[in-house]
Amino acid sequence: MIRGAVARAGARRARRRPPLLLAAAALTVVALVCLPLAYLVLRVVQGGTDPWSVLGRHRILDLVAQTALLVVLVTAAAVLVGVSLAWLVTRTDLPGGRFWAVAAGLPLVIPSYVAALILLAAFGPRGFLQQILEGPFGVERVPEIYGLTGAVLALTISTYPYVYLLAVAAFRELDPALEEASRSLGRSRAQTFRRVTLPVLRPSLGAGALLVALYTLSDFGAVSLMQYSSLTRAIFLQYRSLFDRTPAAVLSLVLVLLTVVVLVLEAYSRGRARYHRPSPGAARAAQRVRLGGWRWPALAFCAGVVGFALALPLAVIGYWLERALSLDRDLGGVWGPALSSVLVSALAAGAALAAALPVALLATRYRSGWTRALERLAYSSNALPGIVIALSLVFFAANYAGFVYQTLALLVFAYVVRFFPQAVAGTHSALLRIDPRLEEAARGLGKSPRRAFATVTAPLVAPGLLAGAALVFLSTMKELPATLLLAPIGFETLATEVWTATTVAAYSRAALPALLLVLFSAPFVYLLTIRRRPEVDAPG
Amino acid sequence: MSGKLFATGAAALLLGMAAGCGGDDEEGNDGAAASGDGGGTVVVYSGREEELVAPLFEQFEEESGVDVQVRYGDSAELAATIAEEGDNSPADVYFAQDPGALGAVEEAGLLAELPDELLERVDERFRDPDGHWVGTSGRARVIVYNTEMVAEDELPESVFDLTAPEWEGKLGVSPTNGSFQAFVTAMRLSEGEDVTREWLEAILANDPKIYDGNTPIVEAAAAGEVELGLVNHYYLYVVREEQPDAPIENLYLPGDDPGALVSTAGAAILDGAEHPDEAEQLVDFLLSEAGQRFYAEAAAEAEYPLIEGVEPREGLPSLDELEGPALELDALGPELERTLQLLNEVGFTT
User: Fold this and answer.
1) Is residue B32 part of a domain?
2) Is residue B40 helix, strand or coil?
3) Closest residue, chain A, to B335 (C-alpha)
4) What is the pTM of this model?
5) Sign of the CA dihedral A275, A278, A279, A282?
6) Nearest CB to B85: which of A125, A353, A398?
7) β-bridge mates for residue B270, sequence order
8) What is the CATH number of the domain that holds A411?
């Protein structure tokens, strides 16, 4: 019912033509973000290797099927975990809600290979679990964690925060009046959640799920440790062992095709529904659900997820740190990299947000086939592994734009290309939930377009925009491949410091930068999850 | 409307700021270099780890007054980077983990020929036959073992003994690791395809424990998870840095056993190097007595020095004693693909 009313309201203004400058800005952004695609095509065309023979040699259908299976399972698990956690911390009287709210978002900065390492330490052959069971029960083998099981677990742990953080933002903005109306009309809580809450959350969930799927497609760390054969692993093998860029480019293009399938499916499932509210909604918090006896299972669930995704990695880091202190290692020299990490991540977040705005505005305010296709196109290169994106920018910058090569500007640009969808995800879903009539009303009352945007639209979309920017910030904090290849020589971040130490197994030296990575990210997650609804002036 | 203005404005501002920072950075570096000892600059792409080789570069800077700017990364990824940069590569020297990575850049036609004077300091088996790269330090394949679980007289005498039932479930291997793959390639080239396939199948049937790299294997041997592991010799010293009392030792295999393969890390100068003189100075230093003694004395990893007259770390057998399989190192690269296929067919890499 609500959806219907909203849809009709939106349909009338879908046909306006976008201003030229906005369209030009969006087109430029999308063209730049698609540079890696151009690079891949160039590599395949110039490569001289027959692409079909590459596909045959790699049993491409098996690879695609295995990759698709992984993506489906991880996305489903991450949505389930992320939404449940978001609902618990925003809508219930969960004990310690604020603590869980921050803790549940932090695993985003823990790289997936660390999550995989932890799982192996716990459940691998001769891991803790097996050792615990061996004594009293004589268990000699725990169920196999290598392969699909391990890869799904590790990737779920490291990706659910995408869904979680966007869902928290959406829950916080959700007008409680909708749910209250449904309840007063006699619907049960479960029915209300399914028929009212979920549909309104739909853009955020879709965006979050898409980010999870893209991350899973591009991940190398977890699949490599868990020995699960995916497309990205095959691509890395081409670079790492065989030094062959043409087959890597062919496989990367297959990855792009798979991404396009994911994007089309997501767009199809979103359908033609409109999601903005007919009224701005009251600036008040929703009534919290009393968990009662359910609080214990709920707490156990939060503790389980946060335990694996955050507490265990922190415990391992603590163990390293203790070893560093007992070996009397010099722990200085991390403050410079820490500052660089924060600076470059903030620049990336700001730049990504600025780049995402015109694209998202175009796609939400001037909905038409081509504006939506343009936005989708911007996503299509983002399931590529970091190394492919980094090499494509190396190629273009070194050969055609030498003046920016290996400067901070190019590095920030590389981050924007890599994490663009995360900025769009927050921006797009925030813009979708706002009724353009509000802005039109403000303009009707004589405000200039800029004033209308600044006083009406901006405050309403701010939480979503910040969510997108924060995702980019957190992803940049842990980014490695582009940083290694594109940063100015000598530019060190916390992520490169951790990498430098772990490549030679100097874990005790990795401990402090790894800990700082989590600590410096915490305030941003806090802002994201604890933020109250912004003060909204009733328009007019 | 105003959204887009704000957006593009902010983007321009941010990128401008960032460009400013980058530019300042570079000028700062150049300035420092120029005001140093007037010794110039050399840009190195290093696939060798910073923890390991940074002190070596510092020593060179002190001795020569040349400013060394290093980009650290994975050897293979840096090789791909140089190939993408082509003639516009800022790199003067490429310092890599293995002959395969050096061979890849050589094949792209981007390496300069090194002067004979430099090449000849190193034994023929550790340098490129065409003179485009030179080995800088050697590493031997060994069997690492837990000294509390395996007595010396129980140790295997060859990798071919590892298929015996007594080692069932007790061996650690890393089939996804480049050094293991090079060893399997060496076995294929020296013992033949069939012998290698049989050996791989027998090892797999003997229930080995699979790890993601050499270090985890040595750590597993130290923890008693496995009794033996197939690794490179220097990881023992890496793990001892963190666990000084670990009960582990290396077993060097005798004769031409494929498990005694000796490989090398190496350096090359780029054809389009902007600082060719400084680059040559650096490679000269890497192959000097001081540069080579570093591996024997200072480095955490006890790699083999490769020039005459510098002895390896105490406790290591001399390079002459390590025969290894008869083959040229630069043959390993082109054969790798077939090895990966074989590992896949046998069921090692899923």
Assistant:
1) no
2) coil
3) A242
4) 0.85
5) negative
6) A398
7) B111
8) 1.10.3720.10
